[in-house]
Structure formats: C-alpha cells, structure tokens
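A brief tutorial aside. Many learners find it easier to grasp structure tokens once they have seen a single protein encoded end to end. The record that follows does exactly this for LPXTG-motif cell wall anchor domain-containing protein. Read the sequence first, then the structure, and try to relate runs of similar tokens to stretches of the chain.
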Amino acid sequence: MGKKNKFITALLSFIMLLSIGAPNEVKAYVLNRNEIEVEIAPDDIIQDQMLNWVIRTSIHKTPDRSYAKLTKEDLEKDLPEIYYSESDHYDLYEFNVFVKSIEGLQYATNTERILLPYNKISDLKPISNLTKLTKIVMNDNPVSDLTPLSNLVNLEILNLGDNKITNIEPLANLTKLERLNLELNFNINDIDVVKNFTKLKYLNLGYNSISDLTPLKELTYLEDGLILGNNKIQDISPLADITKLKELDISSNNISDISVLKNLRNLKFLRLSNNSAINDIAPLTNLTKLDKNGLWLTGTGIEDKKDDLFKVINVNKLINKFKANYITLEDKEYVEVAREAYNALAPELKKYIPELRIIAAEENIARIEKGEQRKQYSELSEFDKQPIELGDFKTLQFKIEDKNGQPLSGVKFNLQTSYGYTEKELISDENGIVSHTIFDAYRYMDYQIVLVDKDKYTSNIEKITFKTDGTPKIVEVNGKPATGTEKLKFVLEVIDQDEKPSVDSSTLQFKVVDKNENPISGVKFNINDQNDEAVSSLTSDENGIARYKITSNMTYMDFTVDIADKNKYTAETEKITFKVGAKPEIVKINRKAFTGKEDLKFVIAVNGKVDKTSLEKVIKEAESKDVNKYTEESYKQLTDALVYAKTILTKTDATQEEVDTITKNIQEAIAKLVEEITIPEGVDDKTLKFRVVNKNAQLLSGVKFKISNNYNKNAVEVISDENGIVKYTVPDWMIYMNFKVELADNDKYTSETNNIIFTTGSKNNALYIKEVNGKPFTSKENFDFILKVADEDIKPEVDKTKLENAIKDAESRDANRYTEESQKYAKTILEKSDATQEEVDKNTAEVVNAIDKLVEKSITSEVAQEKQNVNNEEINTLPKTGGVSTGMSVLFGSLLSTIGAIIVLSKKTN
C-alpha cells in the first residue's frame, strides 16, 4: 500500500470532507477515532466497525456522526455508491482503518457501485445477490474466491488487481464487462473465460503467469488499453485483429516476433521493454499514431533505433495523406512533400518504406494532367484500405448547390449539439461554401449541421454530423471515421409556394412513388391506431397522391400509416406516423410539429415481376468459395462481379435481362477461379535458396549477389557460404513486391544464367514467396547460378599445398627398399599434369595412396653374402647401393623427373 505525504493526505482528506454533501453516496474523509471505535450493537446488521462508520456517515444516520444502530431498512434506501479508500493511508493512523468484513451489505439491494480498495476484505459472499451492481473496485485486498460474483451479470467495471486470485472461471457470465483489471495476482495462468467478454474496452492482466493469448482473439472492441506486461508470453499473433487498440503493454515477456503489430495502426502507447529478442523495427514503421515518449524499447534489440524509427514514421505520415490509386490533383502538394522527405532519408532507412506509393502517385498525377485515366496498382491494394492520415483535421467544409450544380450563397444553417442546442449560425459565402473551424472548447462532443431555411428550400440530406475527440480534432463525419477528404454537399431546391399543394391540419396527404420518383396509383394503405388496429384506409390516386380527412372520433390519438397490399408492394421508407390533438387536426407528423408544408412520400417497390431465384443461388455459391484456396487475381474477378450482383439483387426495378446477365457473369467467374498452390505444412515459404557453381558444377563460396525490389532500389547484399549456398528470407512486411537477384561480383565473374526474379504475396495474412521466374514457388526447386571467371585466361586460384607435401614425401623414399612394380604404379599416377583444383586434389590422394602401396623388398641370402663381401673389401671406392640394377636406377630417376615436371607445370598454371 502506498505511503503518502501526510500533509498532502490531510489536505485531500479535508477537501473530501467539504464535498461529503453528495446525498446517499458513501464518501470517506479524515477519520476520527472516537467515531469509529465504538461498541456495535449485537443486532446491528453491519458488525465491521470501519464499514459501519462508512455506511452511517453516508446516510447521515446521526447529525454528529455518533453511533446509531444500522438496520436493513437503512441499507435498502437509495444508496447508489459505497466508497471508502482512506485505508490506503493507514500509516497516518494509530488505530485500525481497514474494512475486514462486508457482512451486512447483502441488504444494499439498490446499490450500483461498491468501491472498497486498499482494505482486508477476503469474503465476497455478502454481495453475491446484488444484481444491480455495475461497478466493483476492490483492488489491494486478500480476495481469492470469485464464486460470489458469478451472478452479477450487470457488472461493467471490475477491478480486483493485487489480490490472491488464481481462478477466474467464476466470471464466465459477466458478459457486459467493459473494463477488467486483474493485475498483480501473479498466479493467473488460464484466461479462457475472457473470450466471453466481447464488450471489453480495457483489460489489465499484467504481473501474472499467462502464456496463451488465444482467448483474446475475439476482443475486437478493446480500445482503451491491453496490459500484458510481466507474464510468460511468447506468441502475440492472437492480437492481430484488435485494431482499435490505443495502448498495449507487452513488456517483460519472452517475445521476439512483433510482426503482428503492423496491423495495430491506432496504437499511441506501446511498451516493448525487456524483450531482448526483439530486433526488427519494420513492423512499427507504419504506426503513425505512436507517441515517441509512449514507446518503451529499453532492454530490446532495437532500443537504440527509436530516432531512426520515428524518421521513417514521419515520412509514412506524409505518404498516408494520399492514396496513389485514388489520387487527385488536390493531392499533388502532399506527394511533392512526401517525395522530398523520402529522398532526405538515409539509404538504410528507405528500405522500410515502399517507394512505389510515391512513384505511383507521381505517375498518376502526370496521367491526370494529360487528361488520362489513373492506373490501378494492385501492389498497393493493402494501402487503399488504410484511412487517410488526418493530421490536424480541424476545419469542416461543405458546398451548397442547386440541382444544376450552381452555388447558392446566403443560405443559413445551424450548428447544433447532439442535445439540439444551437451554438452558431453558419451562412454560405458567395461561392456557396460553408467553412467551420473547431477550437479548444470542442471536447468530446457530437455536432450536427442543419438547414435553417426549410421554408425556402428542400434538401437532398437532412444534416451533416461530426464528432470531436478533445484534441481538438474532428474524428468522425456522418458516422464514419474522418479522412479530411470528404466531399460534403447540400443540394437544395427552391420551394415554389404557388405550386405547393395546400394542406390544412385536418388533412393527411402524401405522395406514393417508386425509387425513381415515378408516381404509383392504386396503392392501398391502412391507418392503424396505437393498438395497431385498422381504423380506416386510403388509396393513391392517378397522380400517386393519397389524402385522408381527419374525423372527430380520432382526437387525442396516435396513428400509423402502412401498406395494406403487402403481397404486391414493399415499402422502402419508414411508416408515416401522426398525432391528433383536442380537435380533429394533426398536431404532429413523424414525431415533429405539423406545419402543413411537409413533403411526405411513401417510396415503394412492386413485388413479383422478376425471377431472381437463379441469381440468389449463384450468389450463395460464390460466397461459399474460400478466398484462401484461389489465386488473388481470379478471386478478385469473382468478388467484383459479386458486388454488382448484390446490387441487382436488391434493385427493385431490375429487369429480367439484367438479372440473367449478372447470373451468367457470376457463373463464368466461378468457372475461372484458379486454385492457389498450397505450400505443404512445415515448408519455409519465405526463404529463397540457390547454389552458386561454375560450369563444372563446383560450388563457389564468397560470391556476392544483390537483391533489389520494386519499392526500394537500394539492394540487399548476400554472399554464398562455404558450401556455395545463398539463402534470403523475405521480411514479413514486404508483401506484394517484385524482387530481382543478380550478380554483384561482376569484376570477377560473368553469369551464364539469367537473373532470378521472384514475387511475394499474402496467404492467411502472412507473407509467402508466390512465384519464382514466373512459376509458382514450392520451396523444393533447385536454383543454380552458373558463373565463369570474367577473364578466360585467368583461372581461379588452386590450392596445391597438399600435393607438394605428398611429392616431397615421395622424393624422400629410398628406391632400393621398394619393388619395381610399386614404383611403376607411383610413376603412372604422377604423370598426370592437369591443374584444376579437382584434379590436383585427386592426384594428391593418388600419390598418397601410391606411397602407401609401395612394397619393401625381401632381403635374400645372395644379398646378405654380398653385403658380407663388401665388409671384407678395402673401402677405396664408392659403396654399392644394395645390389640395385642399372634399369631400376633409371626408373627411379624418371620418377623424380616426373615429379619435378608436375611442380613446374603447376607453378606455371598458377
């Protein structure tokens, strides 16, 4: 428990004392021992001294906070919140300030919030039936059993951090949870139950023993924070789809692969510290919302790369302001700024940015300026799905035009809050433009812009809505994430009062039209009362107008107008509702005050004209096709056709010809699906491997190659290893790229094979090598780069050390001790004179083998006798050599000559 400065605590406690006046909410303030250490009556329902004081102080049981017995009725009163946390400052007091038991709270049946942190509560059974509870905060208590909470299904906030919990299964039914804190329990390892909490916006599981994050996979509403620091986590791939997340803590785990983080583009705070195996910044380079101070990298392999990372992020922010496939001339300045920033990057950082995003934008702008169509770059499709970088989107602008596209000036609009309060009047300028800039006071609010001059104009839209996030910044427009590129427009039509039908309050009148505004006659409608019983009917005339005169028996009643001929027609607009007042007159229409100027319409579609059975069937067949089983290109053709097919399916006035045509197109697209080659499980489909050999198939080591791609012309250098093998594993972020492998050592070698060309794709959201040299990649291929020395007169250096040593060994042998046959064998081997490395190695082995095969002569009696005679002679001549014949001497001399010739030839070839 935290030790706080006594002065500050006393001051805070005094402030709390001043604010104690909130009725029926238990608040704690500076404690008086005489008020707390009292004798509790045996029949008092709250026996814990501290809790007793908390409750009776809250409900003002006595004016001077002296003791008075608490009853069931006291707790059954309107007591929305019980709050006490002064025990966090227990060191300021010389008496017990802890709540140890909550027995008696079972009678607080109307309580919605219990906040009792920093106490000594271990048993939660007394609150097991308080089903109105929406919030429990009991962090820093000794709670171990969560079973009493199993029925509290309305809980939205639960904080039980720093307790003694090991099993969280009893929480399984708490499906309304939005915030859950279970940190510092240390021994929680099974979090399977968390998968039930699909509404969670914040989850803290730090300081536990968790290794498997699979249960978090479906928690796509997590936005405010996910705290997983200090656990036993290795794999974070289950977090791939939690894309709304703004804060993530995975520090102090065993994580090495963070590639999944590239999906979490809303992250602002990210803690990766103390994961030493993290060594790649690539997955972080497009997280453009990251706060530099909120990124923790201490204790990782990239802790010294933060500055480089944010240099790349800043360039990506500029590139994210436009989309090359949807570029307009208005984006030209953004593209120029991005190009300048990219060019200023250090070469080693450019590899993290797909330059094609800039190149494609530049090329498309050039096309537009020439009056040509934009080119669609399929390689950039993944970036088309990203939202435009907002920057500081503070100004909302919209146009006011008539139906001919002419600007309308002087048109008035109101800026209203979501509560209907008008904050400001906006007026279109001489160009028909309205601009509104938000300022610091706009914090976390919903706004709407509505037409004021409704008596002068009719509008194509009812309103424009937008939302701010308190930065201040506009984050949402018309219910969708703001991009800053919205084309907002009010199209108005002047109301001609002379032509407008005169409708008094005693008559209901509306038009009946199809979606193309064509009038439909003869459509019957029912008028139902508030009990949904038909009280009358009306039918549209030859002009599609339906009229009904209100009668005296309809006063003080609500009514609904709906189609009677539902077998023949389908409504495409909401029902018309109206209210009749004290007189037989309409006072409200569609929940708004009746003016008589309403332009009411019932848009309907005629049923049963076109047979769409086959179309429905073929759409179901198309939707059943697994995207992962077919090539991206062929499946895209199917999905494009499917989008149009669904449009025709829902089109009320579609012709049979249109239905039949699109049905046929879908069938053809299905027939043209091309199955994707499946990479066998366990195969590395991210790594390209090839051999480097000469024309004699000898492996060559130390040869340099360069690998470049269509995004980054600064090539990666790779070198063949001691076995002549080159391996290159493609980084996970390089999806949808084209690569080229070419020889870098052009001054030493020339290549007798073409360069290796390969492309990458995406399967199940993971990178893989899709094609090599135009053919599907299986990882079983044997690719060879065949090289020859650049200068034909110069051969690669040959190592002859072992051969020279073997020759010296042969020369040292005594020819008198070996048979003529074995020496002839050695001579035959040594006469070989080719000087390639392979042949030198082979001759060396053969010479050594020949030496091993030399056979020593047997010493005969004749030789022995001759040796004896030599001993008896006076030694006045050179001694004989053991009876070796003249022919043998010649042979041995030839052997030495041959060896010498090999040495000379070898040196010459060198």
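Self-check: The first strand starts at residue 25 and ends at 26. If you spotted this yourself, you are ready for the next section.
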